[in-house]
Design brief:
The complex is a heterodimer of chains A (238) and B (111). With 238 residues, chain A is an all-alpha fold. Chain B is elongated. Classes of the chains: A mainly alpha (238), B mainly alpha (111). Chains A and B meet through helix 2, helix 3, helix 4, helix 5 and helix 6 of A and helix 1, helix 2, helix 3 and helix 4 of B.
C-alpha cells in the first residue's frame, strides 16, 4: 500500500465496489431478518455477518436453526455451502507468496464471491497486475462494512415487516438468482436438477443431513453426465 | 435458542469458514489444489444452491407443500425465468418472485 500504484489500485477497488454494493441490500436484509426470526440473540445476529461475511451460509445457518437441527449439523451445513471458497483460496495462493502469515490471514478472512469475481475480471485485463491485493483491499473496504450495516438494518427493522408478507420466502428466491449464474452446461444443470430433487426426497433424513446428502448426489450426477458426454463425443469421433 | 447456543453456531461457522478461506492461502500454501478437487467443488455449487431452492420452495413445516400452496410454485417459476434471462440479477429476481407470490393469488381472487 506504500507505492503510488498500490494506492491507485486500492481506490479503483473502492470505486468499483461502491457502484455494485447497493444491489446486495435485499439479500442482506433477508439474511438479517431471518437471523433474528430464527432466534439468534441480537449480539450473535450482528456477529454473524461480521465474522462469517457470506450471505448464503448465513441464510442456511439460520434456516437450520429455525428447523431445530442440532447445532453441529447447522454449522456443518453452513460450512458445506462455503466449500466453494477453497477454490478462491487456491486461485489466490500464488499471489500472496510475498505476504506474511498475519497478512495472509487477513486476506483470507474477507474472501467472498463478489471480490473474487472482481479480481478475476481485473486479471483478465491485466494478468501480471502487481497490485491485485491492493485492489482487493479496496473492494473489501467497501463490501465488508456495507454488508454489516445492511444486515444490521434487517436485524433491527425486520420485526416491522408483517409476517403475512412471507419475507422468508425471499431466501429461496434469492438463491434462484445465485443458482442461475452457476448453471452453464449440461453437467452443471444435471447437478442442479438432481441436487434439487434429492433435497426434497431426502428432507426427512435424520439430523437434517438431507442438504449435505443432496449436494453429494448432485455432484455425482454432474460427474456422471460429464463422463457420459465424453464417451458420447469419443464414440462419435471414433 | 439461548445466548450460548447462538454464539456457538455463529463462532462455529465463522471458524469453519475461515479455515476454508485460509486453506490454500495459508494451510496448504505450498501445494496446488488437485484438479479433481477443484472440479468437484465447482460442480457442487449448482447442486447445493438448487438443493436450497427446491427444499425452501417445496417444504413447509417438514411436509411437501401441496397444490393449495400453488403461489409458491408460481413465484419460484417466475423467479427462475427472470433469473435465467437477467443472468442472475438478484434484486429483479426476488422482486418478481415476491410480486407473483402475493399478486397472482390477489388477481385470481378478484377476477
Amino acid at each position: 500500500m506504500h507505492s503510488p500504484g498500490a494506492r491507485t489500485a486500492f481506490w479503483v477497488g473502492v470505486r468499483e465496489a461502491v457502484i455494485v454494493v447497493p444491489s446486495y441490500l435485499p439479500f442482506a436484509l433477508v439474511c438479517g431478518v431471518a437471523s433474528v426470526n430464527a432466534g439468534l440473540t441480537t449480539g450473535a445476529a450482528l456477529a454473524l455477518p461480521a465474522l462469517v461475511f457470506a450471505g448464503s451460509s448465513q441464510a442456511v445457518l439460520t434456516q437450520f436453526i429455525q428447523n431445530s437441527a442440532s447445532l453441529w449439523v447447522a454449522i456443518l451445513s453452513g460450512c458445506v455451502i462455503n466449500l466453494r471458497m477453497a477454490v478462491y483460496s487456491a486461485a489466490l495462493s500464488a499471489k500472496v507468496r510475498s505476504f506474511s502469515t498475519g497478512q495472509r490471514m487477513l486476506i483470507a478472512a474477507f474472501l467472498v464471491d463478489n471480490s473474487f469475481a472482481f479480481m478475476q475480471k481485473r486479471e483478465e485485463e491485466n494478468p501480471t497486475d502487481p497490485h491485485i491485493i491492493a485492489y482487493y483491499a479496496g473492494l473489501t473496504a467497501v463490501f465488508w462494512p456495507t454488508w454489516l450495516v445492511f444486515c444490521a438494518i434487517g436485524i433491527f427493522a425486520g420485526n416491522i415487516v408483517p409476517t403475512s408478507w412471507q419475507l422468508e420466502f425471499a431466501v429461496p428466491l434469492s438463491f434462484i438468482a445465485i443458482a442461475a449464474t452457476s448453471i452453464r452446461s449440461l453437467p452443471t444443470a444435471a447437478a442442479a436438477v438432481v441436487g434439487g430433487a434429492a433435497s426434497v426426497l431426502l428432507f426427512s433424513l435424520p439430523l437434517k443431513l438431507g442438504l449435505i446428502a443432496a449436494c453429494l448426489f448432485g455432484l455425482m450426477a454432474g460427474l456422471i453426465s460429464e463422463k457420459g458426454a465424453r464417451l458420447w463425443t469419443a464414440r462419435k469421433a471414433g | 435458542m439461548d445466548s450460548t447456543q447462538s454464539w456457538i453456531v455463529v463462532l462455529g461457522l465463522a471458524l469453519g469458514t475461515f479455515l476454508i478461506r485460509y486453506s490454500f492461502i495459508g494451510l496448504f500454501a505450498n501445494r496446488d489444489m488437485p484438479p479433481w478437487l477443484e472440479h468437484s467443488l465447482k460442480l457442487m455449487v449448482p447442486a447445493i444452491f438448487a438443493a436450497i431452492v427446491f427444499s425452501g420452495v417445496m417444504m413447509v413445516n417438514g411436509q411437501v407443500a401441496g397444490l393449495a400452496l400453488w403461489p409458491r410454485y408460481a413465484a419460484a417459476a417466475t423467479a427462475a425465468v427472470i433469473a435465467l434471462s437477467t443472468s442472475g440479477n438478484m434484486l429483479v429476481t426476488v422482486a418478481a418472485g415476491m410480486a407473483t407470490l402475493h399478486g397472482l393469488p390477489w388477481l385470481v381472487a378478484h377476477l
